[in-house]
């Protein structure tokens, strides 16, 4: 049986001084990955392969500040001889695609599930070392009781190397502190996910409740306006008698509505419209100038290799003029 303490003794804390920041999207991705794995394993039935999940975490590292923004799943194979083996070809292809979409994000580590790190986790960690010299290990504990838990069932680990007499260098995990940070868009999404409504429940997120209230108010206003229009039409056709008191009330309601045909409104509307168009035109001109500058710089490089310094200085003058 695998000795869990061989990878982590349960008390060791990290001394690297890294400031790890975790965004909620990563937690949602891991939770969703685990839920799908559990549902699929129930459909398939019993299997000789241990049920677990693996994935990569990406983000931005600036010095000792690490910010984890996103994650993606990693397929694997299992054998009794080698244990868990990450699909390296898929890993590299996925990493390259994420670099194209998120050029500022780097590979920061990997994630899995469990209560504490094991030797199998340590073996997977060594595979990730081929892509990052100091990866983080984010572990989700899905078996913890939410009613008894005070903190999130998440732990972040770093790898440390100890010199053990008789065994040489031994790698182990050390727990690292982290904090949760959310943006405004993430707060709205989390509130919606945390209190998602269904067909049998009336509760929902504050965003859904607000939008539902606005929809109902607009729908009611539209219905009342249709009733007033139908009444006025029937009065004009002679179908209904004219009620002067009711007509005065309708006139008062109409007078309260903001007029859209006044000269002040047209001037303000045209001013805003022209400002937006001007901003769009300026952005297009700036982008075109930037593209032209890049083209001139490339021409300067080619000219400096083929022609004399005079020709290169001439193109440089054009470049400085465009800038």
From TrEMBL:
Domain MPN residues, every copy: 20-163
This protein's record includes keyword Cytoplasm: yes
Gene Ontology CC terms: COP9 signalosome; cytoplasm
CDD domains on file: MPN_CSN6
Presence of the UniProt keyword Cytoplasm in the record: yes
Keywords of the record: Cytoplasm, Nucleus, Signalosome
UniProt record, GO biological process: protein deneddylation
InterPro entries per the UniProt record, alphabetical: EIF3F/CSN6-like_C, JAMM/MPN+_dom, MPN, MPN_CSN6
GO molecular function: metallopeptidase activity
PROSITE patterns: MPN (PS50249)
Localization per record: Cytoplasm; Nucleus
Function: Component of the COP9 signalosome complex (CSN), a complex involved in various cellular and developmental processes.
Protein name stated in the entry: COP9 signalosome complex subunit 6
Species this protein is from: Rhizoclosmatium globosum
């Amino acid at each position: 049986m695998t000795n869990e303490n061989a990878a982590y003794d349960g008390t060791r804390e990290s001394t690297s001084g890294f400031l790890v920041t975790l965004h909620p999207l990563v937690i949602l991705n891991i939770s969703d990955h685990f839920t799908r794995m559990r549902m699929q394993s129930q459909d398939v039935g019993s299997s000789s392969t241990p049920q677990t999940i693996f994935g990569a975490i990406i983000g931005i590292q600036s010095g000792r500040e690490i910010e984890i923004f996103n994650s993606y799943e990693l397929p694997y194979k299992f054998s009794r001889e080698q244990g868990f083996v990450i699909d390296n070809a898929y890993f590299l292809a996925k990493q390259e695609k994420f670099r194209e979409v998120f050029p500022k994000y780097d590979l920061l580590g990997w994630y899995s599930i469990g209560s504490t790190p094991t030797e199998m986790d340590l073996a997977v960690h060594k595979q990730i070392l081929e892509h990052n010299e100091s990866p983080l290990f984010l572990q989700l504990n899905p078996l913890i009781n939410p009613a008894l838990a005070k903190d999130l069932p998440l732990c972040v680990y770093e790898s440390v190397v100890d010199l053990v007499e008789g065994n040489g260098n031994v790698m182990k995990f050390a727990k690292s502190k982290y904090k949760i940070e959310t943006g405004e868009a993430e707060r709205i999404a989390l509130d919606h996910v945390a209190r998602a409504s269904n067909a049998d429940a009336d509760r929902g997120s504050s965003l859904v409740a607000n939008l539902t209230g606005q929809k109902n108010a607009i729908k009611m206003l539209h219905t009342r306006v249709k009733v007033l229009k139908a009444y006025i039409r029937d009065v004009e056709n002679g179908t209904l008698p004219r009620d002067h008191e009711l007509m005065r009330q309708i006139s008062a309601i109409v007078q309260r509505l903001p007029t859209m045909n006044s000269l002040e409104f047209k001037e303000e509307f045209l001013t805003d419209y022209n400002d937006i168009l001007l901003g769009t035109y300026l952005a297009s001109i700036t982008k075109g100038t930037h593209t032209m500058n890049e083209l001139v710089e490339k021409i300067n490089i080619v000219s400096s290799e083929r022609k004399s310094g005079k020709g290169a200085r001439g193109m440089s003058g054009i470049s400085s003029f465009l800038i």
